[in-house]
# Entry
Amino acid sequence: MAKALRADQLSASFKPTEKTSRDWARSLIKYRLPNNRRAIAELSITLSAFVALWALAWWSIALHPMIAIAIALMNGMFLVRLFAIQHDCGHGSFIVNNKLSGWIGRCLGVLTLTPYAVWSKTHAQHHSTSGNLDRQGMGDVVTRTVSEYLALSFVQKFIYRVYRSPFVLFGLAPVYLFILQNRIPFGFMRQGASLWVSSMGTNAMIGLIIASIYYLDGFLPLILVFAPTIVVASTVGVWLFFIQHQFEDGHFDHDKNWDIQDAAFHGSSHYKLPSVLNWLTANIGIHHVHHLNCRIPFYRLAEVLKDHEALAQMQTITLRQSFKCARLHLWDENQRKLLSFSEARALKTSA
# Structure
């Protein structure tokens, strides 16, 4: 995998810069202002496409179940985009009116099976602890250092290897997170009634939708349309989250050395996707900019890269390169990069 460029590793084609992560964050403040007209257009186009494809898939069941499934799988990507809009609502960056933004997020949370208030709180915690090796567990993919892993017992190593396997991370985890864990305010069950209201209110609306579909046409639409759409959206969502922070030249530190701005900037990737996928994922691949300033709307992230060519070259990972990231599991504090289990084993052998 090509080495990702950090701020102090830019090629000579760019003007020399002394900018720190904090300097970059300050320079991006002007991009924080949402555009209401653009926001409504983005929401309308995405929601209309999602509903239309859902209806088409439902109608296609009578033609052939595989046609319905194929359309539902495609529609999963539009649900990813709706989740990205919900994500921006949680940051207060999607639209100017915060009250309206909150209600958009709550409504989309029913479609994405994600209670808005609970997820917003979880995600805020992710932003405040990203890359901190001592404060993992809420909204993070747990990452061990090489030394921590080598000190584990055989059983503990086995459990960690199973947890970090693609089957668990991208097979079981998405279904567990969106179907099961999201049904309760996991991690915040004693932090106020509002989070329970968010979870139970979302659950009630999801239940009403499922019951209505069953009443109208039985189990088939749920099995052939609803389920494939959710599986694709949840799997792609988890994959994107993984790639955004689990790449070779990422940034992890223990609490005493951890800096929130450095972790946000250097610990978040720039996932360069083909234009269609970039649109469907709402520019969330420009994640290093998002973590620098999470109040920048997704529809302005490309504008940031256009105006700041240096940012466009930092922490870049292509679609092809990203699949190699699934083999990286352990943070080497000496080389300051993620390693595979075999690379970590080779280090131990050569020591």
Summary: The beta strands are 144-145, 270-272, 316-318, 330-332, 337-339. DSSP finds 17 helices and five strands in the chain.
